[in-house]
Design brief:
The chain is built from ten helices and eight strands. The chain is of the alpha+beta class. Strand 1 and strand 2 form a beta hairpin.
Length: about 280
């Protein structure tokens, strides 16, 4: 686990490699005691058939340092990480119509009045932003806390109304949130929120949450369950979570549900607000 965690550290220069993740999931409490071999065999990238057949023998590899692992010193794991193929990112389709265009986008919050009625200065959360995103393109927005990253994301998603400027989605002006603009946004873009705790409805089960986008089309219960299982598998979650509620999940599981919900309708544009801050190498 530690070696995979270390390998998940992004390389900022030189050839880029696909980030290593751990496969499968930890067994449930019920299944844990029934496993004949190593409890971690299904997740270990260097496990062999012997690992799953019987619990490895406890052996001493250093004074007072005992382990139950055939790769205790990590030679196989290190070689596997080093052999990770170089990643060639997909190229943006420069000839296609932009999925998103921002023109002079600004958001000003007026200041509040104090107890004497004196109004305080307002805040420019976003000021004169121009941006174009095409199919296949990944754009990262970097800034300190309070610099307006989340406000910009909410403006694009239609959760805030801009003070100035225009927002074009698939060539259509959606700056003002009328019914046509809302329908186009629902078809085209989805947002994964930074805080999954407040983004998930506590009164809905996970299967209903991740397939919420299928409701307007009148999808059947069977269709939604099938899609929910597929989405949970994509985000490395067990199908056993389908009938649970957000309060029964860990923070990382909630974030994966948050991601799964956004992927339900295969959006043309995905807006991600610091979505991996609560995830591990699973």
């Amino acid at each position: 686990y530690t070696r995979v965690l270390k390998a998940a550290n992004p390389v900022l220069s030189g050839p880029r490699h696909r980030l290593r993740t751990l496969p499968d999931q930890m067994p449930t409490v019920e299944a844990f005691a029934r496993l004949p071999g190593c409890r971690f065999a299904t997740r270990c990238p260097v496990a062999d058939p012997a690992c799953a057949a019987a619990i490895p023998t406890l052996r001493e590899i250093a004074p007072a340092h005992f382990v139950r692992c055939s790769d205790a010193c990590g030679e196989k794991a290190a070689a596997l990480v080093e052999a990770e193929p170089i990643l060639v990112p997909p190229a943006a389709d420069k000839g296609s119509e932009p999925v998103l265009v921002l023109e002079g986008l600004s958001k000003h919050y007026p200041g509040k009045a104090d107890w004497l009625g004196r109004r305080k200065p307002g805040t420019d959360a976003v000021k004169n932003v121009g941006l174009t995103v095409r199919r296949g393109e990944f754009i990262g927005i970097v800034g300190e806390s309070g610099s307006g990253k989340s406000t910009l994301a909410r403006l694009i998603a239609g959760l805030e109304t801009p003070t100035d400027g225009r927002i074009l989605v698939a060539g259509e002006d959606v700056t003002r949130a009328d019914s046509k603009a809302r329908a186009l946004r629902l078809e085209t873009l989805q947002m994964v929120f930074q805080d999954p705790q407040s983004a998930l409805n506590p009164r809905r089960s996970i299967d209903h949450i991740v397939t919420q986008a299928m409701e307007p089309a009148g999808a059947s219960r069977a269709e939604r369950l099938e899609r929910a299982r597929s989405l949970l598998a994509e985000t490395k979650l067990s199908g056993e979570l389908l009938e649970r509620y957000p309060a029964q999940l860990s923070g990382g599981q909630k974030q994966r549900v948050n991601i799964a919900r956004a992927l339900c309708v295969t959006p043309h544009l995905l807006i991600a607000d610091e979505i991996v801050s609560g995830l591990d190498v699973s």
